[in-house]
Amino acid sequence: MLRAQQVVNVESRRYNLRDTSLQGNIQLNFEYFKNTNTYLNIGNTIDLMWKRNLTTYLVINEFNFLQSNTKNLNYNTYQHVRFKRDLNEWLCGEAFVQSQFNQQLGLNFRGLIGAGPRIRIVEKDSLKLYLGPMWMYEYENTTDESRKNVHNRLSLYLSGTFYKTGQFGIDGVCYYQPDIINTADYRLLSEIKMDFYFSQNLKFRFSISQNYQSNPPTQIPAQTTSIRNAFVYKF
Protein backbone atom coordinates (compact mmCIF):
# COMPACT_ATOMS: atom_id res chain seq x y z
CA MET A 1 0.00 0.00 0.00
CA LEU A 2 1.42 3.36 -1.05
CA ARG A 3 1.72 5.67 1.92
CA ALA A 4 0.83 9.35 2.26
CA GLN A 5 4.37 10.46 1.53
CA GLN A 6 5.25 14.02 0.55
CA VAL A 7 8.82 12.99 -0.27
CA VAL A 8 9.52 9.79 -2.23
CA ASN A 9 12.44 7.78 -0.83
CA VAL A 10 14.36 6.80 -3.96
CA GLU A 11 17.50 5.83 -2.03
CA SER A 12 15.95 2.60 -0.74
CA ARG A 13 15.12 1.56 -4.32
CA ARG A 14 18.69 1.43 -5.60
CA TYR A 15 20.71 -1.76 -6.12
CA ASN A 16 24.46 -2.28 -5.75
CA LEU A 17 25.42 -3.00 -9.36
CA ARG A 18 29.16 -3.19 -9.91
CA ASP A 19 29.06 -4.71 -13.40
CA THR A 20 26.78 -4.38 -16.41
CA SER A 21 23.50 -5.98 -15.34
CA LEU A 22 19.75 -5.57 -14.84
CA GLN A 23 18.02 -6.03 -11.49
CA GLY A 24 14.45 -5.50 -10.38
CA ASN A 25 11.87 -5.83 -7.65
CA ILE A 26 8.14 -6.54 -8.01
CA GLN A 27 5.48 -6.38 -5.27
CA LEU A 28 1.83 -7.09 -6.07
CA ASN A 29 -0.93 -6.50 -3.49
CA PHE A 30 -4.55 -7.60 -3.67
CA GLU A 31 -7.03 -7.62 -0.78
CA TYR A 32 -10.78 -8.20 -0.85
CA PHE A 33 -12.91 -8.14 2.28
CA LYS A 34 -16.69 -8.30 2.65
CA ASN A 35 -19.07 -8.21 5.61
CA THR A 36 -21.69 -5.48 5.84
CA ASN A 37 -19.37 -3.45 3.59
CA THR A 38 -17.08 -4.40 0.73
CA TYR A 39 -13.44 -3.33 0.62
CA LEU A 40 -11.06 -3.65 -2.32
CA ASN A 41 -7.35 -2.80 -2.13
CA ILE A 42 -5.07 -3.15 -5.18
CA GLY A 43 -1.44 -2.06 -5.42
CA ASN A 44 1.92 -2.69 -7.03
CA THR A 45 5.54 -1.65 -6.77
CA ILE A 46 7.93 -2.09 -9.69
CA ASP A 47 11.63 -1.17 -9.66
CA LEU A 48 14.08 -1.69 -12.53
CA MET A 49 17.75 -0.71 -12.41
CA TRP A 50 20.17 -1.18 -15.32
CA LYS A 51 23.90 -0.46 -15.22
CA ARG A 52 26.03 -0.19 -18.33
CA ASN A 53 29.67 0.76 -17.81
CA LEU A 54 29.64 4.16 -15.99
CA THR A 55 25.92 4.86 -16.55
CA THR A 56 22.98 3.65 -14.45
CA TYR A 57 19.25 3.94 -15.16
CA LEU A 58 16.54 3.59 -12.49
CA VAL A 59 12.80 3.28 -13.24
CA ILE A 60 10.18 3.14 -10.43
CA ASN A 61 6.40 2.78 -10.53
CA GLU A 62 4.16 2.53 -7.46
CA PHE A 63 0.36 2.42 -7.37
CA ASN A 64 -2.34 1.98 -4.74
CA PHE A 65 -6.14 2.00 -4.98
CA LEU A 66 -8.57 1.53 -2.08
CA GLN A 67 -12.35 1.34 -2.50
CA SER A 68 -15.16 0.87 0.02
CA ASN A 69 -18.40 -0.24 -1.61
CA THR A 70 -18.51 2.19 -4.55
CA LYS A 71 -16.58 5.03 -2.87
CA ASN A 72 -12.91 5.59 -3.65
CA LEU A 73 -11.09 6.16 -0.34
CA ASN A 74 -7.55 6.36 -1.61
CA TYR A 75 -5.77 6.71 -4.95
CA ASN A 76 -2.00 7.20 -4.87
CA THR A 77 0.63 6.68 -7.52
CA TYR A 78 4.02 7.95 -8.64
CA GLN A 79 6.52 7.31 -11.42
CA HIS A 80 10.23 8.12 -11.20
CA VAL A 81 13.00 7.88 -13.82
CA ARG A 82 16.63 8.63 -12.86
CA PHE A 83 19.93 8.79 -14.78
CA LYS A 84 23.31 8.51 -13.01
CA ARG A 85 26.81 8.90 -14.44
CA ASP A 86 29.96 7.98 -12.49
CA LEU A 87 32.55 10.78 -12.75
CA ASN A 88 35.22 9.31 -10.47
CA GLU A 89 35.47 6.99 -7.45
CA TRP A 90 33.61 9.33 -5.09
CA LEU A 91 31.48 11.61 -7.29
CA CYS A 92 28.48 10.98 -9.58
CA GLY A 93 26.14 13.24 -11.52
CA GLU A 94 22.38 12.55 -11.47
CA ALA A 95 19.22 13.81 -13.18
CA PHE A 96 15.60 12.71 -12.70
CA VAL A 97 11.95 13.32 -13.59
CA GLN A 98 8.96 12.36 -11.43
CA SER A 99 5.16 12.53 -11.48
CA GLN A 100 2.99 12.02 -8.41
CA PHE A 101 -0.71 11.88 -7.38
CA ASN A 102 -1.81 11.47 -3.77
CA GLN A 103 -5.45 11.74 -2.66
CA GLN A 104 -4.57 11.56 1.06
CA LEU A 105 -2.34 14.63 0.77
CA GLY A 106 -4.70 16.65 -1.40
CA LEU A 107 -2.17 16.36 -4.22
CA ASN A 108 -3.88 16.35 -7.61
CA PHE A 109 -0.58 16.40 -9.50
CA ARG A 110 3.09 17.09 -8.82
CA GLY A 111 5.77 17.09 -11.51
CA LEU A 112 9.49 17.28 -10.68
CA ILE A 113 12.70 17.76 -12.67
CA GLY A 114 15.99 17.69 -10.80
CA ALA A 115 19.77 17.34 -11.13
CA GLY A 116 22.90 17.49 -9.01
CA PRO A 117 25.89 15.58 -7.60
CA ARG A 118 25.90 12.39 -5.54
CA ILE A 119 28.88 12.12 -3.17
CA ARG A 120 30.17 8.79 -1.86
CA ILE A 121 31.37 9.38 1.69
CA VAL A 122 31.91 5.69 2.51
CA GLU A 123 31.52 2.70 0.18
CA LYS A 124 32.41 -0.76 1.43
CA ASP A 125 30.80 -4.17 0.95
CA SER A 126 28.76 -3.95 4.15
CA LEU A 127 28.61 -0.19 4.82
CA LYS A 128 27.72 2.71 2.51
CA LEU A 129 27.08 6.41 3.13
CA TYR A 130 26.06 9.01 0.51
CA LEU A 131 25.29 12.73 0.39
CA GLY A 132 23.25 14.41 -2.36
CA PRO A 133 22.70 18.19 -2.69
CA MET A 134 20.37 18.56 -5.70
CA TRP A 135 18.34 21.32 -7.36
CA MET A 136 14.69 20.50 -8.10
CA TYR A 137 12.03 22.34 -10.17
CA GLU A 138 8.49 21.59 -9.01
CA TYR A 139 5.04 22.18 -10.47
CA GLU A 140 1.98 21.04 -8.53
CA ASN A 141 -1.80 21.32 -8.27
CA THR A 142 -3.48 20.66 -4.92
CA THR A 143 -6.95 20.87 -3.41
CA ASP A 144 -5.96 24.33 -2.16
CA GLU A 145 -6.42 26.55 -5.23
CA SER A 146 -4.73 29.53 -3.55
CA ARG A 147 -1.35 27.77 -3.30
CA LYS A 148 1.59 28.79 -5.47
CA ASN A 149 2.14 26.10 -8.11
CA VAL A 150 5.82 26.55 -9.01
CA HIS A 151 8.84 26.13 -6.72
CA ASN A 152 12.61 25.86 -7.03
CA ARG A 153 13.79 23.64 -4.20
CA LEU A 154 16.97 22.23 -2.75
CA SER A 155 16.68 18.47 -2.35
CA LEU A 156 19.35 17.49 0.18
CA TYR A 157 19.59 13.87 1.29
CA LEU A 158 21.87 11.77 3.46
CA SER A 159 21.55 8.00 3.22
CA GLY A 160 23.32 5.02 4.73
CA THR A 161 23.07 1.24 4.46
CA PHE A 162 24.46 -1.69 6.43
CA TYR A 163 24.17 -5.29 5.19
CA LYS A 164 25.15 -8.60 6.66
CA THR A 165 25.18 -10.97 3.72
CA GLY A 166 22.38 -13.51 3.70
CA GLN A 167 20.96 -12.48 7.10
CA PHE A 168 19.72 -8.92 7.41
CA GLY A 169 20.14 -5.36 6.21
CA ILE A 170 19.35 -1.88 7.51
CA ASP A 171 19.07 1.33 5.55
CA GLY A 172 18.12 4.83 6.59
CA VAL A 173 17.67 8.14 4.81
CA CYS A 174 16.80 11.74 5.60
CA TYR A 175 15.57 14.26 2.97
CA TYR A 176 15.32 18.03 3.44
CA GLN A 177 13.59 20.00 0.65
CA PRO A 178 13.25 23.76 1.29
CA ASP A 179 12.05 26.31 -1.24
CA ILE A 180 15.22 28.16 -2.29
CA ILE A 181 13.49 31.57 -2.11
CA ASN A 182 11.23 30.92 0.89
CA THR A 183 13.08 28.52 3.19
CA ALA A 184 10.14 28.47 5.66
CA ASP A 185 8.36 26.32 3.04
CA TYR A 186 10.03 22.92 3.30
CA ARG A 187 9.49 19.15 3.43
CA LEU A 188 11.28 16.62 5.61
CA LEU A 189 11.40 12.83 5.38
CA SER A 190 13.12 10.34 7.67
CA GLU A 191 12.83 6.60 7.07
CA ILE A 192 14.39 3.38 8.37
CA LYS A 193 13.99 -0.04 6.75
CA MET A 194 15.05 -3.46 8.04
CA ASP A 195 15.24 -6.54 5.80
CA PHE A 196 15.33 -10.16 7.05
CA TYR A 197 16.36 -12.67 4.39
CA PHE A 198 14.80 -16.12 3.89
CA SER A 199 16.87 -16.71 0.74
CA GLN A 200 18.91 -14.70 -1.74
CA ASN A 201 15.72 -13.60 -3.54
CA LEU A 202 13.04 -13.55 -0.80
CA LYS A 203 12.98 -11.32 2.26
CA PHE A 204 10.66 -9.80 4.88
CA ARG A 205 10.80 -6.01 5.23
CA PHE A 206 9.80 -3.77 8.16
CA SER A 207 9.87 0.00 7.69
CA ILE A 208 8.88 3.13 9.55
CA SER A 209 8.83 6.64 8.10
CA GLN A 210 7.81 10.17 9.02
CA ASN A 211 6.89 12.87 6.49
CA TYR A 212 6.52 16.54 7.37
CA GLN A 213 5.44 19.49 5.22
CA SER A 214 5.56 22.99 6.71
CA ASN A 215 2.78 24.36 4.49
CA PRO A 216 0.28 21.61 3.60
CA PRO A 217 -3.03 22.19 1.76
CA THR A 218 -6.05 23.16 3.88
CA GLN A 219 -7.37 20.30 6.09
CA ILE A 220 -4.31 18.13 5.31
CA PRO A 221 -2.12 17.23 8.34
CA ALA A 222 1.43 18.57 8.36
CA GLN A 223 2.93 15.27 9.58
CA THR A 224 2.25 11.66 8.67
CA THR A 225 3.74 8.49 10.16
CA SER A 226 3.77 5.12 8.43
CA ILE A 227 4.69 1.59 9.55
CA ARG A 228 4.81 -1.10 6.90
CA ASN A 229 5.45 -4.86 6.62
CA ALA A 230 5.96 -6.62 3.30
CA PHE A 231 7.39 -9.73 1.64
CA VAL A 232 9.73 -8.80 -1.22
CA TYR A 233 10.87 -10.95 -4.15
CA LYS A 234 13.99 -9.77 -5.96
CA PHE A 235 15.23 -11.03 -9.32
Characterise the protein shown here.
- By secondary structure, the chain is an all-beta fold.
- It has a domain at 76-234: Porin (Beta Barrel).
- The protein has no helices and 12 strands.
- It has strands at 21-34, 38-52, 55-68, 71-86, 91-102, 107-123, 127-142, 150-164, 168-178, 186-197, 202-213, 223-234.
- It has a 12-stranded antiparallel beta barrel with strand order 1-2-3-4-5-6-7-8-9-10-11-12.
- A hairpin with a 4-residue loop joins strand 4 (71-86) and strand 5 (91-102).
- The model has no long low-confidence stretch (mean pLDDT 86).
Summary?
The protein is mainly β and 235 residues long. Helices cover 0% and strands 71% of the residues. A twelve-stranded antiparallel barrel has the order 1-2-3-4-5-6-7-8-9-10-11-12.
Radius of gyration: 18 Å
CATH topology of the domain at 76-234: Porin
**Tally of individual helices:** 0
CATH architectural category of the domain at 76-234: Beta Barrel
- Share in helix: under 10%
Counting helices, strands and paired strands, the structural category is: mainly beta
Sheet bearing the most strands, described?
Answer: 12 strands, antiparallel, barrel
CATH H-tier superfamily of the domain at 76-234: monomeric porin ompg
Which class of the domain at 76-234 in CATH terms? Answer: Mainly Beta
Mean model confidence by pLDDT: 86
Tell the overall outline.
globular
Question: Order of strands across the biggest sheet?
Answer: 1-2-3-4-5-6-7-8-9-10-11-12
The fraction of residues assigned to DSSP E strands is over 45%
Write the H/E string, N to C: EEEEEEEEEEEE
Low-confidence stretches: none
